[in-house]
Each structure stands twice: as structure tokens, then as C-alpha cells.
Amino acid sequence: MIDVARLMVLRAAAARGSLSAAARLLRITPSAVSQQVAALERQVGVPLVERRTTGITLTAPGRALVATADVIAAELAKAERHIAEIAEGTRGRLTVATFASAGQRLLPQAVSALAADRPDAEVTVLEYEPFDAVPRLRRGDADLAIVYHFGSPRPPDDWGVGESLRYVRLRRDPVRVVLPADHPLAGRRTVAFADLADERWVQGWADVGALLDHHAAVAGFTPRVACYASDYLFMQSVVAAGMGIALVPTVALANPPGEIVARPLDPEPVRHVGAVYPIGRWHSPLTEELLARLRATVAD
């Protein structure tokens, strides 16, 4: 049987990128880390790391073992929490990771409903984007993650849904174009991307920025960017100031202050919002209870 302690040493080395950094994390000597990794390699019969002057790189077997180590570490963390709940006599604790706009608009009502029925439950909310939330879910740092993705309703393959995680669809979140209220296109019911070719843009980062670039390319233009931003409320304030226009998902729209309007687009981009939680291991029974309330309160 593979030695779990040695497996955790390999996991630390993979996380820190070097044996010396893992030694500092584990508070043991670099020699001890090297010996543990070497012993694990002898045990499994294949090289697990490639040693370089700048650190280490995992081999394919090494990556497989570290993925297993992540699952084991998450299970142990869950077990510790479960035992603590039993020892403290509490009915349950739940840690939820969520992106900001869902934390503002979708989660509060569901958490309030849960608290009304389970006043002794302890809910902790962590703000993370999906690219951070999903790995933290795998590590056991959260019980449930509210996530989003663009394009297909199917979640991204690299999330590992169906292997170690289960995905529950919550709602479609159409993306709107936000315009100053006095903009010439503000009176239209629907705005075509091609009609926005001459505009200046308040461009979001990451997926939202890529969304604008894609639809602009299809419509035959390159966006002229006046501002880059990662916060939707800030983006809408910049639009209200007349600096440009922006793409904003419906869930993230601010209560209209009168200076801006949001209009549907043609073609219509969609952000898909869902929840992810681990399968195949123990998880808080509050997970399903909060999920049920989320589905009841945030349906399309």
C-alpha cells in the first residue's frame, strides 16, 4: 500500500515547485523531503519527479499520484470537520465559494431561507472566481461552489465534472450591452453587435473580455477600449460617466440609476450559472439543503 505520509510530501513538493520549498512548508529538512520522495518512487517503481536546478517537474505518474493525494487530503479535512461537528454537538457547517455577482444577487435569499429552517447551522461564504473555486472544492476548502461559464451549457471539461464533482444547473444569465441612457441606441429593444463597431468599450477581463473579442470579430470589428475593469459595478459607473459601453451579465446589472440602460444583444451571449459539489466522499448534509433553496430562488 502506498505510504500516505510520503504521498503528502510529494503533494507539498508539487504545490511549491521544489523540494526545498516543500521542506519549509512541512518544517523538515530538504534532505528529508528528498528521501521521502525517493522512497515513494521506489515503492511505486517509477520516477515521480524530474529534478532540475530550478525545482521539480512531475512526471505523468507523479501527476496521477498528486491528484489522488488531493482527494485524500480533502477527505481528511472533511473528516476532521465532521468529527468536530459531532464533538461540538452542532447540526452542521457549510462553506460556500461563490463569484461576486452571485454572492450579491443569488446566494443571500437562499442562505436566509436555510437559516430560517436551520438556525443552528453555520454558513461561511468565500468569494472566488470559478478558476479558484473549483480547485478549492477539490481540496476540501469548500463544500459547494457557485460557478459560471460561457458558451455551451455543459461545464468545462477541466473542472472534472462526473469524475469527482457533480454540476447542478441553476440558470441562464443573458449578457446585455450597457449604454448611457442618452445613447442613440438606448431606445432599441435589441442591439446588433455590428451596430457597435464604432463604440468605445469598457472591457472586462478574462472570460468577459474574450466574449467581447469573439463577438466583435464575428461582427467584423476590433473593439476600441477606453477602460479595462474586473468589477461589473465599476464598469457600469464608467458607462454612466460616458466613457464607453460594456457587456454585463443580467445577474450583475446594478439597479438602474437613470444614467444607463441595458439592452439585449443579437446574437445573445449567455453566461451559465451552476453549482458544483464533490461526489464520492463525505460532504455536509447542508449541501443538498442549500442547493434546493438555490434552485427554488434563482430559477430562470
Question: What do these coordinates show?
Answer:
The N and C termini lie far apart (49 Å). This protein has 300 residues and is an alpha/beta fold. The model has no long low-confidence stretch (mean pLDDT 90). The protein is globular and about 70 Å long. It folds into 3 domains: 4-69, Arc Repressor Mutant, subunit A (Orthogonal Bundle); 90-171 and 272-297, 3-Layer(aba) Sandwich (D-Maltodextrin-Binding Protein, domain 2), CATH 3.40.190; 174-270, Periplasmic binding protein-like II (D-Maltodextrin-Binding Protein, domain 2), CATH 3.40.190. Strands 3, 4, 5, 6, 10, 11 and 13 form a 7-stranded mixed beta sheet that branches. Strand 1 and strand 2 (55-58) form a beta hairpin. The protein is built from 10 helices and 13 strands. GO terms for molecular function: DNA binding; DNA-binding transcription factor activity.
CATH domain class name of the largest domain? Alpha Beta
Estimate the mean pLDDT confidence.
Answer: 90
- Total strands: the figure is 13
Poorly predicted ranges: none
Q: Based on CA inertia axes, which overall geometry fits?
A: globular
- Give the proportion of residues in helices: 40-55%
> Termini separation (Å)?
49 Å
CATH topology of the largest domain: D-Maltodextrin-Binding Protein, domain 2
Structural class: alpha/beta
At CATH's second level, what is the architecture of the largest domain?
A: 3-Layer(aba) Sandwich
Q: In this structure, how is the largest beta sheet organized? A: 7 strands, mixed
Computed Rg: 24 Å
Beta-strand share of residues:
25-35%
Count of DSSP H/I helices: 10
